[in-house]
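Below is a typical protein record.
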Amino acid sequence: MTIRTIIVDDEKLAIQGLQLRLEPFADVEVIDTCANGREAIRKIKTMKPDLVFLDIQMPGFDGFSVVKGVMEIEPPLFVFVTAFQEHAVRAFEANAINYLMKPVDEDKLADTLERVRVRLKEKTSAGEAEKLKAVLAEVAPNAAEEFADAEDETGERFEKLINIKDRGQIFRVEVDSIEHIEAAGDYMCIYTGDNSLILRETMKDLERRLDPRNFQRVHRSTIVNLNQVRQVKPHTNGECFLVLDSGAEVKVSRSYRDVVARFVH
C-alpha cells in the first residue's frame, strides 16, 4: 500500500530535508508540498492524502489551525514536526499520530511510519468490513444477521493480559485488574488499584483490545472498567462521578450518560 503524503512547512529547506529522509521508504509517496496553512487546507481537501507531515509554527494559519480546518472531511493522519518541545501535549490533544522534533531523527521517523502503516491497515480493514456488511444486508439479509452475531462473540478476541513497557521494565497487567484509563494523546495512563503505568498507544487502538462489555468510555479521554464501579454520584449539569473500588472518582460527561443508565435498576 502506498502512503500518499503531503509535507507542510514554511521553510523550504525543512521540506527538502524531510523529503530526503523519506526517500528510503518505498511505500511513501510525497504527492505535494505546501508552504503555508491555507494552501495545506485546500490541498488536503482536494487531494485527500493518507498522511500529512505538518509544521506547527507557521505565519497565519499554524499547524493546529490546519487540523481544525479539515475536520469536516475524513482527515488524514497527522504527524506534527516542530522545533519546540512545549508543543508536544497540544499535538497529542489534536489527535496527531506522533510529533517529531527538528531536525528529524531517522530512527524516530521510521518508528512513526510503522505506526502510520498499522493505523492505515486498521482503517482499511474497518472500511472493508463495513462494505461487506452493507452488501450482505442488501443481497443476503440472513447472512448479514449471522455476520453481526459472529461479531458479538467477543469473548475470545479481546485481551486478557496487556504488556506495558514503562520506566525500562515490562509489566504484565491483567486486564480485569485495570480500574480506569486516561488518555494524553498517544499515551495512556493505566490505573490499577495500587499502581499506574504509562502505555504508548492511542485511546482508539486500546479500545479495540478491550471487551466493551466491561470497558466503556465515560469521557472523551477516559475509559472505565464497569466491574470496578461501586457507586454513582450525581453532579451538576447532567454530569456525575463513578466511585471505583479503590475510592478513586471518575467524571462521566453528559455525552456518555447512557453508560451510567446500566447501573440504575
